[in-house]
Design goal:
- InterPro entries: Ankyrin_rpt, Ankyrin_rpt-contain_sf, PGG_dom.
- Keywords: Membrane, Transmembrane, Transmembrane helix.
- The protein is mainly α.
- The protein has a three-stranded antiparallel sheet with strand order 1-5-6, with no helix packed on it. A three-stranded antiparallel sheet has the order 3-2-4, with no helix packed on it.
- Helix 1 packs across helix 17.
């Protein structure tokens, strides 16, 4: 087995960021090579439980024939709990590449169960690994063979949605968003389950829906309190913005003409820009108020958290953000209309000062746009890595084979 020498320096002509990208790509490639090697050499599959029916289990090995005797099976089943096999460990920790490699070499491993009687779908659902879940479900015949399986506690796939593993990243989300993710996972699993699976009782004599409702009842209360408090705070801000925007419509820049009552600066292009920005700010603020009031008066049922409440909160935040942005643009146009001196550098400085808060606000207050930008950036980064790999390879690296000799690649 070859081991890379960390002291080898990349002396290619590429820039430092491109070198880092290429180094990262090489790490991923060699990690996958190591995975493929370990999967082929793995001997932990000699004893692999595979549930053929809902009540009987059998042990098989990945080869054509099995050398495991009945006595070994009994000893294996009665032994103390052993560590999970690589397939279930990869599923638990969210490593779809490893899962795919194992299932490619050993397709029958898809029916492997752990000592709790849980197959790969049970583990993927419990740990919220959507990518692995989708990969297994889309595998030929896998959905039909695994969807009706139950574990040692008679838990179906739907029951596993209620047994969520505590996620460190869940602290970064609001409880409403965590509950929304759980609801969507429940609906996703429900689509592949039969009507009988939805009615099955586990060892606690509860259906999957009862388990889910009881397991998430406390979270629903937290989500209700969280959304109500935030909606009230956002409503106050939206009303204040609407008040300022409404007052600005009657105190136009430059004031009215004492004879005609028309605005003095209405012929200037920026005045029209001010009018549009102020009107949009007022309209968006009032729209967000309506959205937040709908949230406050909601019944907060489980099905409300799946779609409607999340959509209303996002729509209200978007409208509130637009309202603040338009109000800042209206302020900038007012400042330019009333203070502009006609001098080039003075006007440029004034423009920069006026629109600087707008730019800061845009870059710090549009989380959805940031997410989209990150997605585009990730795609561009992946494309760039592929392009870099096609360029001139770096200086040949020295590798240590572990036998006292070196090789050059």
């Amino acid at each position: 087995m070859l081991v890379i020498d960390p002291n080898v320096e990349d002396t290619s002509w590429m820039l430092s960021p491109l070198k880092k990208l290429r180094k990262q790509k090489f790490k991923c490639e060699w990690a996958m090579k190591l995975v493929k090697l370990l999967v082929k050499k793995d001997t932990s599959w000699e004893k692999t439980a595979s549930r053929l029916t809902k009540h009987r289990s059998k042990v098989h090995q990945y080869g054509k024939t099995s050398s495991i005797t009945q006595e070994e099976i009994i000893t294996y089943e009665s032994a103390a709990r052993l560590p999970d096999t690589p397939l279930l460990l990869a599923t638990k920790h969210g490593c779809p590449q490893i899962v795919e490699e194992i299932l490619t070499l050993y397709p029958q491993a898809i029916e492997h169960i752990d000592q709790d009687g849980r197959n790969i779908l049970h583990v993927a659902i419990k740990n919220r690994n959507h990518e692995i879940f989708d990969m297994v479900v889309n595998t030929r015949y896998a959905k039909q063979r695994l969807r009706g399986k139950i574990d040692n506690d008679a838990n179906t796939l739907l029951h596993m949605v209620a047994e969520e593993v505590e996620d460190v990243d869940s602290d970064l989300k609001g409880p409403a968003y965590v509950l929304q993710d759980n609801m969507r996972m429940f609906k996703k699993v429900e689509k592949i389950c039969t009507t009988l699976d939805k009615m099955k009782l586990n060892s606690r004599s509860k259906t999957a829906e009862q388990e889910f409702n009881e397991g998430n009842d406390e979270r629903r209360k937290e989500a209700k309190e969280w959304m109500t408090e935030n909606a009230k705070n956002y409503t106050v801000v939206a009303v204040l913005i609407a008040t300022v925007a409404f007052a600005a419509a009657y105190t136009v820049p430059g004031g009215p003409n004492p004879k005609t009552g028309q605005p003095v600066l209405k012929e200037k292009p920026l005045f029209f820009f001010f009018t549009v920005a102020d009107a949009m700010s007022l309209s968006a603020a009032l729209t967000s108020v309506i959205m937040f009031l709908n949230i406050i008066t909601s019944s907060y049922r489980f099905k409300d958290f799946e779609r409607s409440l999340g959509r209303k909160l996002k729509a209200g935040l978007v409208m509130l953000t637009i309202s603040v942005a338009m109000l800042m643009l209206a302020f900038a146009s007012t400042l330019i209309l009333t203070v502009s001196s006609g001098r080039k550098w003075t006007d440029i400085t004034l423009y920069a000062i006026s629109f600087f808060p707008v730019l800061i606000f845009v870059f710090t207050s549009f989380p959805f746009e940031r997410i989209r930008f990150r997605a585009v950036y990730s795609k561009a980064k992946e494309t760039l890595v592929n392009m870099v790999s096609c360029m001139t390879k770096p200086k040949p690296a020295v590798w240590y084979s572990g036998r006292g000799a070196t090789s050059v690649i």
